[in-house]
Amino acid sequence: SAAVERRLAQFRAARSSCAAAPRPAEPPGKAAAPEAAEVPRATAQVRPGAAAAPVWARPLLLKVLLWAVLLALFVELELGLPYFVLSLLYWMYAGTRGPAERRPGELSAYSVFNPGCAAIAGTLTAEQLERELHYRPAAGR
């Protein structure tokens, strides 16, 4: 806890020193050099040592742009709808996690994939259904 408090204090001090640093006034109509514009961005990082990636180098943005360009190409070839449907199917497949990606101790929603076929809390089992059917009074009696 003390280490976390110390790191938080260091972060706050670094952030306040970046915000309080005076910036030189520029003459009107003259743009700052690209190197000067990058210096404050590098010092205002949340994690020390982590380089801020430019907007065009982010993987998700590149993937979305590639998908949109391919969609435009397939629309031009009159195959836009099949491309869209197949890409939706791929996103559903890629969005599901496999058993190797599960955290230790995390159970699957499907009991057959859990050790000993253990069911998660709130699952309706056949035994529970039978108990509820046998102990409930019959309707209309």
UniProtKB/TrEMBL annotation:
Positions of region (Disordered): 19-38
Ranges that cross the membrane: 64-93
Gene name for this UniProt entry: Saysd1
Organism: Smithornis capensis
Protein name: SMDC1 protein
Annotated keywords: Membrane, Transmembrane, Transmembrane helix
Pfam family, one: SAYSvFN
All copies of domain SAYSvFN, residue ranges: 63-133
